[in-house]
Amino acid sequence: MQQALPDALNTDWPARHGDALRGRRALVTGGAGFIGSHLAGALLELGAWVVVLDDLSGSDGTNLEPLRRLADRRARDRLRVVEDSILNRDALADAADGAELVFHQAALGSVPRSVERPRDYHEVNVTGTLNVLEAARAAGARRVVFAASSSAYGGAETLPKVETLAPQPLSPYAATKVAGEAMMRAWAHSYRDGGVDKQPGGGTDTACLRYFNIFGSRQNANSAYAAVIAAFAKALLAGEAPVIYGDGSQSRDFTHVHNAVHANLLAAAHDGPLRGGVFNVACGQRVTVTELAERMAAALGRPELTPRCLPARAGDVMHSVAGLGHSRAGLGYEPIVGFAEGLAATVGWYAQQHAAAAV
Questions:
Q1: In a domain? residue 338
Q2: Regarding beta strands 287-288 and 251-252, do their DSSP bridges make them parallel or antiparallel, or are they unpaired?
Q3: By the 8 A CB rule, do 151 and 174 touch?
Q4: Which of 9, 132, 238, 356 is most buried, judged by most C-beta within 10 A?
C-alpha cells in the first residue's frame, strides 16, 4: 500500500455548504475510490454520518487513510467502512440502512477496458445500479445522486454538450452509464410523487451528474487504463514521453475533483425534487490533449519530453466541452476550481508522491 499523501488543494467545505448536511446519514458507494473518497471526506467535514461501501477492486485502500485520519481527529464515530460489493444485496442493504442520502460512485471505469469486458461492465454498472436504487428505496433514502458520465454524448458533434442532446454512447462503458441515467429517472417517477408509494413528497428522488474528465489527487496512475492526466504524470516523472492515443488534437473539458464533490453536495441538499434530472459537471473550458501534455511537461521541468502518438482507441470521442447553463439554473452549480489551478495542484501532488516513493 502506498503512503496516503496530503491533498495539494484544500477546499473549505463548511464555508461553501454551511450546515445543510450536518447530521445527515449518507452512503457513498465506491467511497474508497478517487472521487468517492474526496466526497466522503467532504461529507465528514460537513458533519454528516458516512458509510463507505467499496470492494477495493479499484483501490488498495490507501484513499481510506485520509478519511480515517479525519474521523479520528474530528468525526469520531461518524465513519463506517464496509468492504463489499454493490453486487452483494445483503451487504448493500446493511450499508444503506438508515441512509437519507446515497451517493452512487461505484462503477467499473475506463472506456477501452469496457470494450474488452462488456459483460463485466454491464453486471457491475447496470445490475449494481439497480441494486443501489432498490437498497435506497428500501431504506427510505430521500435522494440518490448518481455518477453519470459525459461519455453519454458520444459522437454528437454539437459543442458545447448540453443535456438536451440525445445520448450517443460509443462504448460499453458509456452505454452502462446511459442505462444508469434511465434507471434513475424511472425510479424517481415510479416511486416518488404519485408513484407506487402514493405519498406526495415521499419516496426516493434521484439526480444524475455527468462528469467531464475528472482529475485530481488520489487518481490512480498505476493502471494500464489510467486516466490521461494520471498517465501523463506517471510517464513524465519517470522521464518518459507521454503517450497520446490519436493525433493529440482531440479536446476535453478537464475538471478538478473538487468540482465533482461540490456538485454532489449541491444535488444532495437541493430542496425540491430533481426527478432523475441530468446535470453537466465541468469547467466549460476546452483543452486539447497535446496542450495538456505540453503544460504538464513544462510544470514538471521536462519540456523536452514531447508526446508520442499511437492509434486512437475504440470508443474514444473527438471533442468534448460542457455547457453549464442547466447546471447553474437547476443546482446553482459553478466550478469552484479552474482548470489551471487544479492542474498545478494535481501535478504538484503527483510530484510529491513520486518523491516520497523514491525515499
A1: yes
A2: antiparallel
A3: yes
A4: 132
- What is the model's pTM? 0.94
Residue 247, domain CATH: 3.40.50.720
Residue 27 is given by DSSP the state: E
What DSSP character marks residue 312?
P
What is the domain count for the chain? 1
What are the CA-CA distances from residue 303 to residues 77, 229, 309 (Å)?
A: 48, 16, 17
Asked whether residue 58 is domain-assigned, the answer is: no
Measured distance CA(314)–CA(317) in Å, rounded: 9
Is residue 121 part of the annotated active site? The answer reads no
Active-site residue, from 153, 173, 191, 211: 173
pLDDT score at 5: 60
Q: Is 84 inside any structural domain? A: no
Among residues 109, 242, 133, 241, the alpha carbon closest in space to that of 195 is found at 133
Q: What is the per-residue pLDDT across 292-302, written as a single tens digit (0 to 9) for each?
A: 999 999 999 99
What's the grid cell of residue 113? 477496458
- 60 within domain boundaries: no
Domain that holds residue 124: 107-358
Give the whole-angstrom CA distance, residue 339 versus residue 327: 18
